[in-house]
Amino acid sequence: MTDRYAVIGHPIAHSKSPLIHGLFAQATGQDMRYDLIDAGAEPGGFARALAAFRAAGGRGMNVTLPFKLEALAAADVASADARLAGAANALRFEGEHVQAQNFDGLGLVRDIEVNLALPLAGRHVLLLGAGGATRGALLPLARAGVARIHIANRTAAKAEALVAELAPHMRDCALSGGGLDALAPGEVFDLVLNATSASLDGATPPVPAHAFAPGAMAYDMVYGRGLTPFLRLAQQAGVARLADGVGMLVEQAAEAFAWWRGMRPDTREALARLAGEGVIEHRPGRGYFAPSPTASDIADLYELHRRLTHWALDAAPAPALRVAEAPSPADLRLEILYATIAAAAGADILTRAHRRVMLQLRPIRAVEREVQPADLEQIARQERLLATGRVAELRAEVDAYHDGRRLAAPAVFAVMRRSGQSIERI
Ligand code: NAP
Fold first, then answer.
1. What is the CATH number of the domain that holds 202?
2. Is 260 part of a structural domain of the chain?
3. 161-170, 193-202, 305-314: lowest mean pLDDT where?
4. Which of 183, 197, 251 is the best mutation target for the ligand 1 pocket, counting ligand atoms within 8 Å of the beta carbon and taking the most?
5. Which of 102, 136, 164 is the C-terminal boundary of a domain?
6. Residue 91 belongs to a domain with what CATH number?
7. Quick one: which of 104, 106, 39, 109 has its CA closest to 74?
């Protein structure tokens, strides 16, 4: 009989877990089915979906945001990693029992040690963030023999509380914590791990360049197309060993699979297959990454940017529109222009969405300049129209700009593919 598994979350449509577990099942000859379950945003949605899945004969689940805490609470047996993380990312159903595990930290350790070939014993680690991902990583890192971990968090008190709670469980690993701005100037780390969700906002935790030891690795648990803002910051600080969290995702999936099925799939084979299908990208000597943008991603980004600008223009009262800053290099001028439009709409969420898209577009525009010169005249025209509140004409200019960029996307992408350096910049 086919055994049933699933990943549960909200939203969940983007999840790569069904694909990854499908590859594992195929490679190990397991008769299993793996579904996506969106438990929605309503209170009680997780408990209802869990009960329904168990009633239908489900054997186990992966759990992702925002249900990791509820998953732990639903279990009557939990591993030490899940208890200390305060969250579960995998469940197994055995008769009446719900068992909970948290494999995120173990997946991280395996990705770093096996896929990225960085032995962790004796290392000094800077861990950015003090949320669930950090909690889940601490014990597995200590077990791997890390000598020291310093937790730096935006809210210093959260890092300090985490240190007080978990230091007694850290074996021989020294644990300290504080604010992001309180790193001592002489302190250097072999591994800097970003476990904040800052990249999702297009933001970067402010890590000083001196924090990276020579030969250090920068690792972002978040992944998206191309380098995250944190990885770009590390690259600008001269760090050559960069990795995002795609490998961690595959490794934690393999741990869950082994827990459910009693056999661990070969993740190298799965990673190579995922790379072959373009789901992830293999950078020789560097590991596996979320893929660089494709031509259609670039076109989609411009389409998104155009829509955001239209919404902002519709929402902003015309007299409020003005160019706030003095003209500067072309890219910056354009960003200031669009940021001004979004900010004038007075909707924080729109401003944040705009900032994120602009951050993604910034390195693409650097490549665009190799394909076509930045159209300074058009930028100047848009600035004038904005300054005088001529919204209808400005909208037409915005459309012309974005249509031009979308048409140029295949050429931009071709340049990016040809030049490894350009892709690294993304
Ligand atoms: P969380 O519990 O919500 O914690 C978020 C952390 O990020 C907090 O420490 C928060 O600081 C910090 N933060 C948020 N925005 C920031 C900003 N703009 N600047 C500086 N710090 C900021 O989230 P989580 O569960 O720990 O997850 C963190 C990330 O890891 C998520 O993006 C998640 O997708 C990723 N993750 C990846 C994998 C994988 O398999 N690759 C697995 C697990 C998690 P404050 O305390 O000051 O608010």
1. 3.40.50.720
2. no
3. 193-202
4. 197
5. 102
6. 3.40.50.10860
7. 39
Domain boundary among 62, 77, 102: 102
Query: In Å, how far from its chain's centre is CA 408?
Result: 27
**pLDDT band, residue 363 (cuts 50/70/90):** confident
Tell whether 198 is covered by a domain. yes
Asked if residue 201 has its Cβ within 6 Å of ligand 1, the reply is: yes
Query: Is-catalytic flag, 68?
Result: yes
The predicted model scores a pTM of 0.81
- Over the stretch 59-68, which tens digit does the pLDDT of each residue have? 999 999 899 9
Per the CB < 8 A criterion, the answer to whether 311 and 345 are in contact is yes
* Total of domains in the chain: 3
DSSP 93: E
**Per annotation, catalytic residue among 68, 123, 124, 406:** 68
Residue 221 in contact with ligand 1 by CB distance below 6 A: yes
CA 266 – ligand 1 centroid, Å:
29
156 lines ligand 1 (CB under 6 A): no
Asked whether residue 153 falls in the same domain as residue 230, the answer is yes
pLDDT for position 393: 92
Torsion angle defined by CA atoms of residues 107, 111, 115 and 119, in that order, rounded to the nearest 10 degrees: -120
Q: 218 C-alpha vs ligand 1 centroid, how far in Å?
A: 16
* Ligand 1 atom with least separation from CA of 223: 41
CA distances from residue 322 to 383, 385, 399 in whole angstroms, order as listed: 8, 9, 19
Determine the structural domain holding residue 313 and report its residue range: 295-419
